[in-house]
Amino acid sequence: MSARRQRQIERYMGTQIPHTAATAIGRSRRYVAERSLPLHTHDVHEICFITHGCMRWTLGDDERDVSAGSLFFTPPRVVHGSRIEVFDQGGLAWLQVDCGKLTDTELARRLRQSPPFIVQSPRFDEMLAAHERLMTECQMTRPDSPSLFDGVLKTLASDVLRSRDAIQTTTSSKAVAAIRAFIADASGSRVIGVADLQKATGLGRTRVHQLCRRHFGRSPGELILQARIHAARIRLSRSSQSVTQIAFELGFSSSQHLAAAFKKHVGMTPTAYRKAMLL
């Protein structure tokens, strides 16, 4: 197989269709494993579809294995790409959008406000077909091409955001339940951290932080600490364990660490609290 067939890449720049909001559009197909796309950023929004194969992909704080049927949305200046040296065989289709040139101001606002995300969408085939239409328009020289291009672009961008909303509604409810369960664990003997919340929810650090703030009013670290303090209060009032034992079992680095956090949250030291509970 020739090098040309091994790595067939087509690229069409948005400047070939004047007065559109797209700055670049393209697709690629790799028939052999080759060097990966290094971490990078753009000054515009990017929508990317995984059309074939699978790869390990980084998007902001999120890193996961993605496969055909996945799409990811990358806002400006968000780091994305692969940390591994070699991609497996696979295919990509991408579209870069300058929100400042979108005629639909509401859509531009929604795109600007959206965080980065990776989803498996049930409308993937329809969106990929829309991308193909845009690719076709890039090769046409008809007078109406710019208006047709913008119409398809708006539909595609709106579908991408709807996919995010549909997936996040389900994902968020499951993730919040997982967070509650793990926070409850922090009140027991198991020591957990923010990384455990990420693993339990399957979400990145930023998304876990957003969910905790939205549904619990605190950061993940604050939630875990609050649960540990609650567990310490129970042990101080119901057991004969020393403050040092309690501290280490609940994940504090020392009895002094527990004492400082306990006094900040409860208003007295662990020793004083235990004496008050015995009265």
Please describe what this structure looks like.
By secondary structure, the protein is an alpha+beta fold. It contains 10 helices and 10 strands. It has helices at about 5, 105-115, 125-140, 145-185, 195-200, 205-215, 220-240, 245-250, 255-265, 270-279, and strands at about 5-15, 20-30, 35, 45-60, 60-65, 70-75, 80, 85, 90-95, 115-120. The strands form 2 sheets. Strands 1, 2, 4, 5, 6, 7, 9 and 10 form an 8-stranded antiparallel sheet that branches. Strands 3-8 form a two-stranded antiparallel ribbon. A hairpin with an 8-residue loop joins strand 1 and strand 2. Helix 3 (about 125-140) packs antiparallel against helix 4 (about 145-185), helix 7 crosses helix 9 and helix 8 (about 245-250) crosses helix 9 (about 255-265). The protein is elongated and about 85 Å long. It starts with a helix and ends with a helix. Mean pLDDT is about 80; it is low at about 1-10.
Give the arrangement of secondary structure elements.
Blueprint: H1 3-6, E1 7-13, E2 22-30, E3 34-35, E4 45-59, E5 62-67, E6 70-74, E7 80-81, E8 86-87, E9 90-97, H2 105-113, E10 117-120, H3 124-138, H4 145-186, H5 194-201, H6 205-216, H7 220-238, H8 243-249, H9 255-266, H10 270-278
Antiparallel strand pairs: 1-2, 2-9, 3-8, 4-5, 4-6, 4-7, 4-9, 6-10
